Amino acid sequence: MSNKTLWILSCLSLNLFFSTSYANDTPLPISRASLLVQPCFACHGDKGVSKGLPIPSLTGLSADKLHETLLSFKRDQRPATLMNRIAKGYSDEDLKLIASYLATLPTVSQ
Amino acid sequence: MSTISRRTLLKTSLGAAALGFMGFPLLSFGAGAKVVVIGGGSGGATAARYLRRFDPSLEVTLIERNPTYHTCYMSNEVISGERSLDSISFNYDGLRKAGIQVVIDEVTQVDTKAKTITTKQGEFKYDKLVVSPGTDLKWDAIEGYDEEASTTIPHAWKASEQTTLLRQQLENLSDGGLVVISVPANPYRCPPGPYERASLIAQYLKQYKPKSKVLLLDAKSAFSKQEQFIEGWKKLYGYGTDKSLIEWRGLEDQAEVTKVDIKTRTVTTAFSDEIKAEVLNIIPPQKAGKIAHDIGLVSESGWCPVDFKTFESTLHNDVYVIGDACIAGAMPKSAYSANSQAKTVAAAIVSTLQGKELPDTSHINICYSLVGKDYGISVAAVFKVGTTEEGKPSIVSVKDSGGVSPLAASDEVRKTEAAYAHGWYTNITQEMFG
Hints:
The complex is a heterodimer.
Chain A: H1 3-24, H2 32-37, H3 41-44, H4 63-74, H5 83-87, H6 92-102
Helix pairs in contact in A: 4-6
Chain B: H1 2-27, E1 34-38, H2 42-54, E2 59-64, E3 69-70, H3 75-79, E4 89-90, H4 93-97, E5 101-104, E6 107-111, E7 116-119, E8 123-125, E9 128-131, E10 135-137, H5 161-172, E11 178-183, H6 193-208, E12 213-218, H7 226-237, E13 246-249, E14 257-261, E15 266-269, E16 274-276, E17 279-282, E18 286-288, H8 290-295, E19 304-305, E20 319-321, E21 326-327, H9 335-353, E22 362-372, E23 375-387, E24 393-397, E25 403-404, H10 411-433
Parallel strand pairs in B: 1-2, 1-9, 2-5, 9-20, 11-12, 11-17, 12-13, 19-21
Antiparallel strand pairs in B: 3-4, 6-7, 7-8, 10-18, 14-15, 15-16, 22-23, 23-24, 23-25
């Protein structure tokens, strides 16, 4: 193997190292949607995965389904102990942002 | 041809490698900045974890005096015998795994000009400092009740030995003996906590010491979730009858405890009533934790004024205060509030380090209280930065949202809320401590 080839290989592996380390450490976004959602996890589990049953996880649902559910809570059209009181604290647009963000979460906590 | 292609590849690769080196700091403008968090409770632990999540390149150090944290929430279940002290105990291994440097040490000095923190063992530099010191008890507020007195007359408002002490005293209580809980005026940590405590002690008495009673002596005229608590007390503990396991006296009765005689376990109220208890639990008035006073973060109110959006101290730049110690408008002093504020403060710090604007956001607070086994009630609110009715900037609750569990709800609803209270505890502590 020539010196040049070694160079190329080491450069490639260096790139691989950087891209991998970056991928594992993807920062949590600081967007309005992200910030609106984070307080939900105190009840619904870290990153939306609930280990404290019977509180449900917030992962694995489509944005449309989540938005519809949140709107039903807000309008008292869905039975709830508490979520009806919480959902009323957000505009319909914010509930849509929240739903869209939640729909992107992986179903298993990483 | 092959040489050229190799050269081209080499150039591309070197270019990409350079991008790898240079791109990382570009992606993360505040890379390698030092953020120190003082206090490893509900606010501090959450803030440390979220700082690393919003910017994994940050160097985050958490300084905490004790290697183990006991949550005060759910400690009423330890007092009533429903759970062990171990079950409300957490260490910092989860934070260490998240890449946070955890230092178990006591802060002795903070120099906000030089941005240095001195502990008993070492010194730390910071670019941004988060202080989450919780509350301290005002030992001078009730005559005769000081730190020494608390070794025999527990406050149990910071969990651990104090919780165990109150539990032991309840176990030794004679059937027919009186339990007195002294409750302070607002603001204090966990507004519904004293009434949950009375409820769960009554639950224990009902089973083991049915001739006994809990008497709440309150400095206030009303309290959190009052109607819901009283409804539950009537249902479960005969409240309002002559055999009631709970009695509440408030401001109208001038029931505020002004003096404690620790030898005879006798309290004197503002009305000059003298009441002798067999088990006495004094929850004294509170103020921001000592370290906040030492750093100069406290106003005359005894609490820490902060910017309502970012939680940066209004008294010192680059120092942020969250949790029970800060003045957060309508947000109560609770674990949930501290957790919500911690997420915002982490985003605020990372945004400012990266030279970006922090988006507007909102907060949530939910406080579950257990009135009895399978009987839970809650208060919930969504908060945002806004103005009070007097037109002052503050954190206000969103109009027509939140509120307390409905009255006259079914047994099933109460049971579900009790289950949710326990589910919440599992989830929030896992989010905080890993």
